[in-house]
Amino acid sequence: LNKKLQPGKLTVLLQRGRGDIGAIRALLPVTLPTKTKQWLSNSLLGGQFRMDQGKIEGDLQAGNFLDKGTVTLSAVITAGKFRMVPKWPVFDAVSGRLSLQNRRLRFTIDSAIFVKQQIAQLEGSLSGLGTNKPLLTLSGQSSGEIAELLTFMKAQKLDRGATGAFMKAARGFGAMDLTLEYLFGSRKLGKFSGVYYFQNQSLTLLSGLRLSDIQGKLVFDNTHIAATDLTASVFSGPLTADLFFTFKPGIREIKA
Questions:
Q1: What's the pLDDT at 198?
Q2: 8 Å CB contact between 89 and 50
């Protein structure tokens, strides 16, 4: 507390701290809204942090430092364990950096594991901390087993029923670029878009036909999935195919 400041004001400077990731919760003002504290408790599950700098400043009589003061934190994370969205699986083995500035939490994940996918260079932010509907945005790359990824997307309804409309099973490793928005407290699916890169996977269609050695890419967003010039092997021979699927009104088309 700086005695030169006006009465009733607090300034705390934090430098070069380190410890368990759960300790970050203890550094935030007790005046944070209940929903924000619950999200932090459910999201920051483990790991270590090294704080570069931090500052908490504001009027002690104010109801909320996030609006009438300054709350900033910057830290490096190692071996982190986070749950970004309620009911989502955990992001494990997280290495990266996070920063907090009043109502916005920003993070850069250099590497992590999510549903057996290797995550690389994931940028994200959570804006509107302490409000009824904070917005989470994510943008990054992943690679891993397609079956695990599809299981997650089906469970969260991110595929909008698309995979079940034309395939029975999938195997093999691939890569994906993804951008996602998730609005907490909303029943509507957030915006998403991306590209999935096939790397010699195999798919079994609903008809029982099996495609192997698939190469090419799928482009997708909230409205459709499309691919042109996918190549694969079927009945020991080459195949070239185009695919188009819309979520509304549910147009499905495969040309081979």
A1: 92
A2: no
**Cα end-to-end distance, the chain, whole Å:** 72
Q: 119 with 110: CB under 8 angstroms?
A: no
Round to whole Å and give the CA distance between 250 and 61.
56
Answer with the residue of higher pLDDT: 93 or 133: 93
In eight-state DSSP terms, residue 21 is G
pLDDT of residue 1: 47
For residues 119 and 143, give the distance between their C-alpha atoms in angstroms, rounded to a whole number. 7
CB crowding 145-171: b at 16 or more within 10 Å, else e: bbeebbebbeeeebbbebbeebeeebe
| Mean pLDDT, rounded, for 105-129 | 90
Position 203, amino acid: L
Q: Residue 22 has what DSSP assignment?
A: G
- Taking Cα atoms as reference points, which of 73, 138, 134 lies closest to residue 108? 138
Amino acid identity, residue 49?
F
